[in-house]
């Protein structure tokens, strides 16, 4: 009987090697190819049941793609697959550079509300936080590829923290600019 | 050859061509389009009109007028002439009265439920009013295509939330239309545009209609339309431009309260003035003895704050797509309000390139929907398009202290399923309330409440021991369904997220029964016919699938079992009642479930294998 062997492994589902450094083009191409065969729209004329199964399969492929597309989520996923806990909630950072970076970003975020031009202030914040995310993503990759899981986990915790600040900004943006 | 009949994407025999349409159910105008005489086109009424004004008039003696004729009654009887009801879909009284719009009809406060409109035909739901518009379009289509429709693709603003989408689907159901798909308006526009231009790369669709604004960023590649992000405002459009002019007029001439008739007159005058300013530099606005001249400059100042809102949404959509201005190859303008020169100018400025205004902004959405309808009905062979859309607003649940916790983030590709575990906080607790909300804000009160439901029958355990897994499934229409399961014992409960603003199944059934009665139709006969058609479709699909993959994917016993159940269904189809047939459809469906799943897994494998061969 045919069955997907690694139901839970997003890399296997998309037919990609299990590594941090993925070819974005190959990822997208594999994703689209799979959706072409399972997307519910392909089963529009089929029974209720088949359509339900298609919705489930298609969701599964979307989840895999969504996880691997984002570098931060991909990092978390790889750590999890290699048996490392990724709950960074009670990590305390000792890296003084990061502490500085974090304080600056926090200040920037706190000043958004009072800014004379909140749109410009938001733009600046996103630029800075995205810069920091790129920097720590690269550091994560070095650690992970060298098998230095302690370093990789540490960098991941930082990424998680930065992503939290980013979504905090998104939330404030909604309130400030009234979406 | 035989076995290919049921393969997705294969075209059936020409005489089996199924009639399906795309419907753009707009705030101001609605349209229906289909594949006819070898091309996709909008369908016209007897008078040759393609746009049907989205206006419904409820007259004496249960007379209902839709479109132009209804519009003509607006001045004389505004209270019974309903326009722009799309803005009320899935909305409560408080939602829609918070904005100080000049309303020309009476709204009924139904508390948490969807607002209603008071007419001489009673208090009507916006769903019922929309259904009247859909009925007219469906009738127009059946007439010009010469047969019964198998279904329709109905477009909705991309920024519509779950309640608004559900309301639209309910309206179709009420109009007796099968919804093949709810399709986002900008995505439909992109399809029509992309098919024409065969373009590859990232585009932005800027859709400013009568009542809603959407911005979608899409990646186009070899027939795949992947929405990267979407944003907008489901209450921003040409109507607001009219309102802005009206407010200016009233203030300038010092007008106080207006009667409903005057309000309608003023809004009509303002709309005409606005449209006039798209060509002229200056126009007159008149109400009774008051006359004012409106220049384009003043008008631009009036609408700039509204355009600002739209531009901010564009900015956020680009950021969510992780793209910059330079990555966008083209900006496609859709919707009547993109005819306003100031809108074109500002959008062009912001994106740093001339927006495309040469496609017909009125019809492009309906044409795209028709294209998708044609494919979903199974009429198209080869060159299939694949539409990958996103959920516009985050879904979450209420947590301690009235805060929201997001479960599915906005701009996640759909369909999507996410599971979340909850636990009990009291010893022996057997029930638990879950409140599902949609929106980006932190406080539950600032988000849209979609449903509150209670999970019952949790086995009594010590606090924190139960593990209740709640799964949120959003389908390709953007509609949410929630199911819950207690993991330690496997107690399952299904919850359909509907209530809050939707109509219950009994509501719909009641409305349908009365509409059958009105049409003098036999409900029983109709139900039987529907079941027979469904049974036939199931049997045909399964036979083809068995021919293709039966040997490979099923054991001999499994095949025999399935075939014998199919045989019974075949018999029932001929002699059984609607209920009998339904029961056997269910039996065959259940027996074929594993087969269906194996077939899908096999096609995934095949797709993967195909890729790996390609790469070598
Ligand atoms: N020449 C014009 N200049 C300015 N505005 C115009 C012009 N023509 C149409 N409009 C406006 O466009 C709006 C209707 O656009 P459209 O038909 O695209 O909306 P819709 O599809 O009904 O609404 P929606 O998509 O928001 O549900 C109206 O507000 C109308 O006044
Ligand atoms: Mg429209």
TrEMBL record, chain A:
<comment type="function">
    <text>Co-chaperone involved in the maturation of iron-sulfur cluster-containing proteins. Seems to help targeting proteins to be folded toward HscA.</text>
</comment>
<comment type="subunit">
    <text>Interacts with HscA and stimulates its ATPase activity.</text>
</comment>
<dbReference type="InterPro" id="IPR004640">
    <property type="entry name" value="HscB"/>
</dbReference>
<dbReference type="InterPro" id="IPR036869">
    <property type="entry name" value="J_dom_sf"/>
</dbReference>
<dbReference type="InterPro" id="IPR036386">
    <property type="entry name" value="HscB_C_sf"/>
</dbReference>
<dbReference type="InterPro" id="IPR001623">
    <property type="entry name" value="DnaJ_domain"/>
</dbReference>
<feature type="domain" description="J">
    <location>
        <begin position="9"/>
        <end position="81"/>
    </location>
</feature>
<comment type="similarity">
    <text>Belongs to the HscB family.</text>
</comment>
<keyword id="KW-0143">Chaperone</keyword>
<dbReference type="InterPro" id="IPR009073">
    <property type="entry name" value="HscB_oligo_C"/>
</dbReference>
<dbReference type="Pfam" id="PF00226">
    <property type="entry name" value="DnaJ"/>
</dbReference>
<protein>
    <recommendedName>
        <fullName>Co-chaperone protein HscB homolog</fullName>
    </recommendedName>
</protein>
<dbReference type="Pfam" id="PF07743">
    <property type="entry name" value="HSCB_C"/>
</dbReference>
